[in-house]
UniProtKB/TrEMBL annotation:
This protein's name: Alpha/beta hydrolase
Pfam families, per database record: BD-FAE
Keyword Hydrolase: yes
Annotated GO MF terms: hydrolase activity
Amino acid sequence: MIYEVKDIFAKTYPEPGKLYVYAQENSPEMDPDKRRPLILICPGGGYSMTSDREAEPIGMEYLAADCNVAILRYSTSPARYPTALLQVAGSVKYLRENAERYHIDTEKIVVLGFSAGGHLAASYGVFWKKETFLAESLGTNAEMLRPNGLILCYPVITSGPKAHRDSFLELLGERYEELVDKMSLEKQVDQDTPPAFLWHTAADPLVPVENSLLFFQALHDKGIPAELHIYPRGRHGLALANKKTLSYMNTGLQPECATWVPLSKTWLENLSCTDEPQTPMNT
């Protein structure tokens, strides 16, 4: 196992994000040239912190599924947009440039995010090419920054009536009025947005399920392959939804929701078979 920690700087903020890379070594006894999918994890935390429950425990699940994993502890408030977005872009660039060393399948670099980290992952999915300052700031071209898929877990998406308002206030600060409509990501989906796997609970009291519904509908309307699972019960912030990620308050256990992990692994296995755009719906 290769385990490394990399500073990821953004020009908009003096402190770096921290990228924790877990890459499995190849073996001459099996497949010495094997390339594995890479899951880049963005924990949630309302853009005010990054959750431990949505970081390493998640990575261990994907390592067990024969993936490589990177966990980005991105900069949060008082850092403002686009600092965290630039750190995701810098992470993807670094991982793609070091794909041979880390044995990464460059056609399966997937950004996974929870809650506000889901907003960050989805932001990257819609802005990686559209926002040309990302590639320019990193001295590269947009193709180096391409995400091949998104896994979005009870994500913050909309800044409309169903918004988790505090996430947008922490993300945008004094630029809230200027940028809040732009950060409503269901309005930003285009043909360059990658395929996505989403899950949410209908009972989520903090980030309403409409956030995932709106993003799924936007993807579907553009003919982008998308898979959505809605569970009837469950609070916000379930993480793995099993005993491994119980909170210190003994919350976060919803066994039926734990099926999102194997479902996402199956989706990942089929990603290369489903990443061709479908025919957009007439709207």
